Structure formats: structure tokens, C-alpha cells
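Supplementary Note 3. Input sequence used for the single-chain structure prediction.
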Amino acid sequence: MTAPRRQERREVPIGRRVAQLRARRGMSQQVFADRIGKSKSWVDKVERGVRNLDRLSVIHTISGVLGVAPDLLVGGRTRQATVTEIAAAVERVREALVRYDTPADRVTDLDRQLDYAYTAYRHAQHPQVLRMLPDLLTAARHAAAVDLLVGAYRLAAHLMVKLGEADLAWLAADRAMTTASGDPRQTGTAVIPLAQALRAQRRGRLALTVTTTALRHLDPAACPDAPPEQAALAGTLLVEAALAAASHGDASTADDLANQAAGRARRCPDSDGFGPTTVELARALAATTLGDHALAIAIHQAATRTDGWRRLPVEHRAAHLIDMSRAYLPIGDRRAAARALVTADQIAPAETRIRPAARAALTAVLRAGPTPADLTRLATTIGLTSGST
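The predicted structure, written as C-alpha cells, is reproduced below.
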């Protein structure tokens, strides 16, 4: 593509890009407006350029519904963080986690900053979250609200799992558990990244123990009229327990726990990041972990055709596609494995370009034989070639 044509693409107004992406996904203005919580008139004005689209939170919401990275929506992509920069940022998070002093000045808007960081995480803006975390962790130690400190530790743990820093993730999750001590709901939220860190360390039995223990303390079954957020938390813990059981080869327990999660998902569909689609994606991951790749692919293909799939955060969708690329290779479908990785990169570039798990998946596909040109370009972009694997 020539330079003038690249310039032309960059200069397409954001409203027109929204209209183009919406149309490609087969959404009417009314359906799109409903999904982003705006009026049809508001959408029409944005698409015609009558109304500016300049609020980051709204851009993130729109990009999530359209299934693209925010950078792609606003035009162009920001420079990808290098491996060295990511490593340095992780070290700053490590330093923040091991400090016990508190800052002299109280941060008055920590809740807003933490909400913004979680929004950035759900949109797979991982380098940005990494830059925010040290200050968030430092400020949270001075916060009076336990939920803010637990939230900061949880976010650190989730991101460290993604970046392959299982020990650091365990430390952050353990801090969250200690801070939440005595509060079943806060403890339950802290257990989720703890279980993920333990699975990353190949300690599936221990991950299963901590999740089921948290479930007993939460005791959602004893209160059928529990608020939706408590039911969603219980369902998420059941999903994590199912994945933990699968990680140490217990197929029967994994299936039983997934069935329990599915039962709760029917009562609180798509509430607080938990719903029927979330459970089905977990079933697919459990199946491929247990070696039943054909079943994993069948579940995956059915789940990704639902409206629930399109409503999931881009981080969740891209991470799932990376996981599922592993299911295609054992059955010899290199093209499908490559397609999953390329689609993940289109949805959320940071998921494929800075995560060790994604690099490992890319390497596996490259080693399997000839690959499509788009995957080869992606591998070259992040410094992988078939000759270097």
C-alpha cells in the first residue's frame, strides 16, 4: 500500500469508522445504540460527524462492542511496547509490591483511577496498565477502603499471570487475600487471580482447594435471592474450580463444576462478566487441557457464534482465541490455529505481542509447517521466524 493510501486511511473520521465497523458486524444503529447505552440519535450524530467522539471511556465501550482495539477505532496503532520495556515495567510493579511504607499524601480519586485501570485491562491495554500499577499499589496502601486495596492487588495479579510472572502473581493475590481476610465477598474476588496463579505454577489441586473453600465461605446456595453480583462471583469461582480440576486431570470433577456454573449462569446471564458464554468458553479450555481437542473446538465454535461472545471484553476474547489455537494443532488444522492467532491480534494486539503464552502458541504453529502469510507477518512483527524457533 502506498504512503498516500495509508494517509487516507488514517484520516477517515472516527464517526465514519464507527459506521463502517458497525455495518460490517450487521448491527443497525438502534441495536448498536442499545449495546453501548446511548440513543439512536446520538449514534447517528456521531457517525455523521455532527457530534464529537472524544471521551476515552466512551471510545473503550464502543470498541468493545465492535470487537476492535481502541487504537484501531481512533485511527492507527500506537507503538508496541518492547520486551525490554515490559520487563522494566514488571520490575517496577515488583518493587511496589514488596514495599510496605505508605505515601505521605492521600490520593482522593483512587477509586476513579482504579476503575480506569480495570477498563484499560478489559480492553487489553496492558502496557498502559503496567505503567499505572506501581502508583496504584502505592496509593492503595494508604486507602481507607479495603475494596480499593484488594482491587489493586487483584489487578496486579491478573496482569502478572498474563505476563508469565506466576510467582509475582501469587504474591499479589496473596496480599489481596490477606487484606480481604474476614470478608467472604472480597476474599472470593481475591481467590480468582490466586487460582489462576496456582494453575500457572502447575498446582491445580491447590487451586481447586482454594476456590472450593471460598465457595463454601461465600455460601451462595443458602440464599437463592442473593444479589446478582454475589451469584456472578459464585459462578466465576465455579468456573475457576472447573479449570483447576481439569488442569490436574480430574475430568469428572471439572464437568460437574462446569455444570454447576452453567446453572448459575442461567439465573444471571452476562452479569458482571459472568454468563452462559463465559461458562462455555471455560468448558472448551477445560476440554483441550484434558486432551479432548475435538470437543474443545466444537464447544468453542458454538460459543463464538453467540451474541454473548461479542459482548465479552476484547481481552477475554483474544485470550480465549490464543488458548484455542492449541486445540487445532493436535488435529492437524494449522490454518485454523493460525486464523485464531491472527484474529486475536486484530482484536487485541497486546494479547499476542507481549504475552509469553501467545509467543509460545505462535512458535508452535510456525514449527508445525507452512503458515498463512498473515501469520508469518505477525510472527515477524514480534520477532519470531520459522528459522528462529
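The radius of gyration is 21 Å. Residues 228-247 form the longest helix (20 residues).
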